[in-house]
Design goal:
With 407 residues, the protein is an alpha+beta fold. The chain is 51% helix and 9% strand. The chain contains 20 helices and eleven strands.
Length: 407
C-alpha cells in the first residue's frame, strides 16, 4: 500500500498558495485492507474512505470508462493493480494530475509542473472530452488563476468547443452546474469564467440569455463601454472587487437580460428592459435551480435597478412602493444587497469605476425613515385590520416626504 497526496493540494503548494483541502490516493490496496485499518467507506460509486483520525478522504487508485451521457455516465474500476499514472491520467488538467509522497517527491507523468510554469490550463488526455462538467471546471480555474496569468491552452479550448457543440452539456444536472457556477462566481475574477464559456461556445448553450447581450449597444452617454455584454462582465468584476456575496454577484450577472430582447431598430435605447427581462431571469434561475435568496434578489434587481439609479428623483410614493417591494421592515439585508448590486451596476462602466454613488446612502436613509414609524401609537388610536395597514402606510409616506425635503 502506497499513499500519495494528489490534485489541488500539490498544485497549490507548487504555486505557493495556501493548501486547504487535501485529497489522497491509495495505490496497491483493497477495500478489505482499508477497512481493516479503520477507514470508513463513503463512496457509493467507487471506493472512497474517511481517515479514522483526520476525517480526510482517501480514494483507491482507479480507472474509468465512459458508459453514458453526462457527468455521471462513467463506470469505475478500482483494484490493487491500478497504477498511480493510470489514476492520474483520468484527471482533467495536467496541473491537477500531479502527486507527491510523504517526502514531497513529485510524480508528474503529464508535465503539470511545466504547465504551471507556463501558466497554461491544459487537458491531460483526449478523455477530457468525455465529461461535460469539465468545460465549467476549466472556466472556473481560469477565473481563479487569471490574476497569475493563466490561460486555457488552445487545444483544450478546442476540445471544450467540441463538447459544447456535442449536446453533452445538456446532460448536466442543474445541481452539478450550479455548484460550478456558484463557485466560479465567488472567484476573484468571475468575469473570466463567463469569457471562457463564451470563447468555447458553452455560454450560448448554458445561458443563451447572457450570451445574447454581447454585441447589443447601449447609449454611449450612460455607457462609454457601449456593449451590454462587456458592461455585464464589468459589473461582475466590480462585485468581486468589492467582495460582494453570491446573491449580489448572481443578480449582477442577470440584471440586464431584458436588453437582449430589444429589437435592433430600437438600439441603443432599451425601453422597459427591466420588465422584459424578468421572464428571462426566471428561466435562468429555474434552469440551474439557484437557491431561493439568489433567485429573489436577481428578480428584484432586474425589475428595480433603474429605480435605484434614479433614487434621488423618485417621488415619496414611488420610494415607498420600492421599500414595500423589498419588505425592508422584515428583511433589511435583502434591500442592502439590492443597493450593493445597483452600485456595482453604476461602477461597471468604462471610466466610471471610481465615481461616487450617493444613491446608496439616500436609499439607506429612506429605509431608516420608513422604519421609524411605530405601530403602537396607531393601535392606541383604535386602528386595526386593513385600516391599520393604511394608517401605517400614510405615516411612512409622511416620513418619506419629510426625509426627501431634508435630504
Amino acid at each position: 500500500m502506497r499513499i500519495y497526496k494528489v490534485g489541488g493540494a500539490v498544485r497549490d503548494r507548487l504555486l505557493g498558495k495556501p493548501v486547504t483541502d487535501i485529497d489522497w490516493v491509495v495505490v496497491g490496496a483493497t477495500t478489505e485492507e482499508m477497512l481493516a485499518k479503520g477507514f470508513r467507506p463513503v463512496g457509493a460509486d467507487f471506493p472512497v474512505f474517511l481517515h479514522p483520525n483526520s476525517g480526510e478522504e482517501y480514494a483507491l487508485a482507479r480507472t474509468e470508462r465512459k458508459s453514458g451521457r453526462g457527468y455521471g455516465g462513467f463506470t469505475f474500476h478500482a483494484s490493487p493493480e491500478v497504477t498511480l499514472e493510470e489514476d492520474l491520467i483520468r484527471r482533467d488538467l495536467t496541473i491537477n494530475a500531479m502527486a507527491e509522497d510523504d517526502q514531497q517527491n513529485l510524480t508528474d507523468p503529464y508535465h503539470g509542473q511545466r504547465d504551471l510554469e507556463a501558466r497554461l490550463l491544459r487537458h491531460v488526455s483526449p478523455a477530457f472530452a468525455e465529461d461535460p462538467l469539465r468545460v465549467l471546471r476549466v472556466a472556473r480555474f481560469a477565473a481563479r488563476y487569471a490574476a497569475l496569468g493563466f490561460t486555457v491552452a488552445p487545444e483544450t479550448l478546442e476540445l471544450m468547443r467540441q463538447l459544447s457543440e456535442s449536446g453533452e452539456l445538456e446532460a448536466l444536472t442543474p445541481e452539478r452546474s450550479w455548484k460550478e457556477i456558484s463557485r466560479a462566481l465567488m472567484e476573484n475574477q468571475p468575469q473570466v469564467f463567463i469569457e471562457v464559456l463564451r470563447a468555447c461556445g458553452a455560454l450560448k448553450v448554458l445561458m443563451p440569455e447572457v450570451d445574447a447581450l454581447f454585441g447589443v449597444p447601449q447609449p454611449p452617454a450612460h455607457h462609454p463601454e457601449i456593449d451590454t455584454g462587456v458592461h455585464t462582465l464589468s459589473v461582475l468584476q466590480q462585485a468581486a472587487l468589492h467582495k460582494q456575496p453570491l446573491t449580489v454577484r448572481w443578480a449582477c450577472l442577470l440584471h440586464d437580460l431584458g436588453k437582449g430582447l430589444t429589437p435592433e431598430q430600437e438600439w441603443p435605447q432599451h425601453i422597459a428592459h427591466e420588465f422584459k427581462g424578468l421572464k428571462l431571469i426566471k428561466a435562468v434561475n429555474e434552469r440551474f435551480k439557484a437557491p431561493r435568496d439568489c433567485q429573489e434578489l436577481a428578480m428584484l434587481v432586474g425589475e428595480y435597478h433603474t429605480h435605484g439609479h434614479r433614487a434621488l428623483e423618485l417621488k415619496p410614493s414611488t420610494l415607498l412602493e420600492l421599500l414595500q417591494s423589498f419588505d425592508v421592515y422584515r428583511r433589511p439585508q435583502r434591500f442592502e444587497e439590492f443597493i450593493a448590486a445597483c452600485e456595482m451596476d453604476a461602477r461597471g462602466r468604462e471610466g466610471l469605476e471610481q465615481r461616487s454613488y450617493p444613491q446608496a446612502d439616500y436609499l439607506r436613509g429612506a429605509a431608516t425613515a420608513a422604519r421609524t414609524i411605530a405601530v403602537q401609537p396607531l393601535l392606541e388610536k383604535g386602528f386595526k385590520g386593513p385600516e391599520l395597514g393604511e394608517a401605517i402606510k400614510r405615516e411612512r409616506l409622511k416620513a418619506l416626504k419629510a426625509y426627501k425635503e431634508n435630504a
